[in-house]
Amino acid sequence: MSDQSASTLTGNRPQSNNLLRRDVRFLGNILGEVLVHQGGRELLEIVEQIRETSKALRAEFVPELFEQFKGTISSLSPEIRHQVIRAFAIYFQLVNIAEQNHRIRRKRDYEVSAGETVQRGSIESAVSELKERGIAIEDVQEILGGISLELVMTAHPTEATRRAVLDIHKRIANDVMELDNPTLTYRERGKLHEKLTNEVLILWQTDELRDRKPTVIDEVRNGLYYFDETLFEVLPSVYEELERCLGKYYPDEKWHVPDYLRFGSWIGGDRDGNPSVTAKVTWETLTLHRQLAIRKYEEKLNGLMDILSFSTNLVQVSDELVESIRLDREHVELKCVDLWRNTKEPYRIKLGFMLEKLANTRDESLKGSAMRYNHPNELLEDLLVIDRSLRQHFADYVADTNVATLIRQVELFGFHLMALDVRQHSQEHENAMSEILAKMNVVSDYASLPEEEKSDLLHRLLNDPRPLTSSHLDYSASTRECLDVYHTIYRAQQEFGVNCISSYLISMTEAASDMLEVMVFAKEVGLFRQESDGTVRCTLQSVPLFETIDDLHAAPGIMKQLFEMPIYRQAVEARGNLHEIMLGYSDSNKDGGVVTANWELRVALNDITAAGKEYDVKLKFFHGRGGALGRGGMPLNRSILAQPPHTVGGGIKITEQGEVLSSRYSMQGIAYRSLEQATWALITAARLAKYPEQGLQTEPEWDDIARSISETALTKYQDLIFRDPDFLTYFKESTPLPEVGELNIGSRPSKRKNSDRFEDLRAIPWVFAWTQSRYLLPAWYAAGTALKQYTGDDKEKLKTLGTMYEKFPFFRTLIDNLQMALAKADLVIAKEYADMISDQTIRDRIFAQIEQEYKLTSELILAITGQTEILDNVPVIQESIRLRNPYVDPLSYMQVQLLTELRALRADDQDDPELLREVLLTINGIAAGLRNTG
Predict the structure, then answer these.
(1) Which pLDDT band holds residue 624 (cuts at 50, 70, 90)?
(2) Is-contact 771 933, C-beta < 8 A?
(3) Active site residues
(4) Of 150, 261, 333, 863, which sits most exposed with the smallest number of CB within 10 A?
(5) pTM, rounded to two decimals
(6) H or E segment to which residue 769 belongs
(7) Are 416 and 289 in contact (CB under 8 A)?
(8) How many CB atoms lie within 10 A of CB 155?
């Protein structure tokens, strides 16, 4: 695009953002060159005309200009239209790269210029605050021993960008970083320009659409990409920074921070609604995890081989190291690695044996022998031998910088790399249990039993050591697969360690029997057993997933019922007296709307925590947040601090889904900052839990007010979504929902069943479709009516809400998330999507209702916050949205035109693959422009 268009996007920002403007201008100019090279100057001029008109309409809406704008778009030939769509979409990709780079640059600039000033939200700011508040070392140790965060990668289909495109993005980002190099010569800058032009040309000629749906193993490899590229190195550096800060502010202690920050995964384990995730796939997933872990350790050991050239002619190594090498010579035959020939360099000799044992870890035939590492602790012990020896001859710096990092990596990743969770729908367990119990003549129709009878029966079966299944009986394919999963988990724990899979999540948990079924299946394969002395051994925990509003209401009672069962309580004790519980943000939002979902999740957190306390059980809450606002999405540090502090004591798990993975973890600098802020939030939350008087003090009546607002919002939301008979027609015809299902972005179907019922639609395409059509309805609808119902015309009540916004963290987070959604929504464009609805009466009636609610919500938010405009409280994001909109708008208008044409063809039983392709390209482009999908 032109120099002018590129520079316009960044606007008149402060002087400190000159480098960002430079990068956007530079990349925009290169894209303009590529457009001319590929499509001629005519293409660039058309793109510029559309952009200028869109910008003018944003500055001042003129109906005549608007019609002219739409006329220009509708008059484009298919060939030119295709290229225009791609031009805008790729421009957003380049701008996103520039902005990500600038985040890294901004942090570095701050650290350079701030000197001793501590950056807000940094690890050092959390530790320094502990010191400033006079918190003793013993209490700091208690806080650090109690914090825990596991970030769980999922394959939920919201990442619209191909891996090949992400690789190009990374190369462009690295090259753009070079622009900051002050030593570049004129010739080198010219070469850099050529290199970036080449990369943008490759991007232009690379298909951004997948030609097929990814397999589950494709998704596993995509998840592992972030470990390979960033997380394997970034995670230890976060620990190192925390230990550095603790040493600075609490120098009297030798700090080794417990493992509080880890990653996990659902990819390859989540079989809910995805028949492609079989027991065989789960085993292959775990094997790929181990292969990557071993390869990364081999890379690190080879790096140490280059560094540890210490000679016994100059230093005296430890006797422990010498004895270790002697034992290796005795037991390890070198086949993969040559013996280091210089006998005066013992570290290199030792590392050679370690590399051989690592390579042999892949060999099943050597299992149990001294030829391989049978457990990561054996590798860890060898590293500690090297560490102690280095310190003996005062090579502390090498030990602290090179060896210590690898020690931390082994502690964090073991040979399993990360924990894999298994998830399945509760109905699948009930179906399998019904068949098994019928074949064993225990009960003819288990599924029809009342809940109390089911629970009593399962409780008895857990206490009965006799097996329920037999290899001599024939089971249906679905029941056999259900049982195979448990056998695979048992085998995996034997091979990869018990931490490789220890949580089994149950979607749509509605009763205690849903949890007990999983425990009975675990007993069948040895994952749960009661010894002759009554001791219970349990290496797999059934984890409820409470998703709907009704499920959240029932959750405390279900957990109390389970905690009352002696055998279940013993199973919890066997797992460290810690119970994991997952709360679903997506389905609760789809079920009850954003206001009610947020309130009911808060209530459930508090009530379940109270139930755990009553039975002396620590609870680890697993927050199933999506990337989008309508699915609980928000920055990682804010999502931690959004929880009531007293609910974080047993640890936190949070899902990291779709585009969130690439935006947070594709670049080391951004990954580090995100995890640093998460650590700051964890320590802050733990401090507030221990010392609640240090937090904001809330009034008891505020909970009552929030509850009444939630109740009104639920009625308003469900009146439209569930009780309006025409709503589903409106939704399907005014959004690209059917076409989103044709975007090959995930192995999992968009519906749990082959059904058109709203209840069977997954929350992800629900939010994705509303985001594409610029409504963002799930993220704000019903809030205005609920707030107005409370305040009426009473200024004192409005003032109370203003005070709640200032001092009640829950309410502030809710209002700020509503602001973000309102700012990203655009009902002028949404109206264009509504015009696709065939029934004019339905269209006009429901759109008027949505539009009225949007205006009311905006008015109430401004009145509560005292702001002049939405997002005045976050001007950087406000400006970013304002500047991006003129570039997203043309894609939206083209999408409406394309959808109209495609649906007209399909109504006549015709199709046009190229037309569908253009629709899918606009979906990708809008996702890049809004930096959000589902």
Answers:
(1) confident
(2) yes
(3) 156, 590
(4) 333
(5) 0.90
(6) helix 763-772
(7) yes
(8) 28
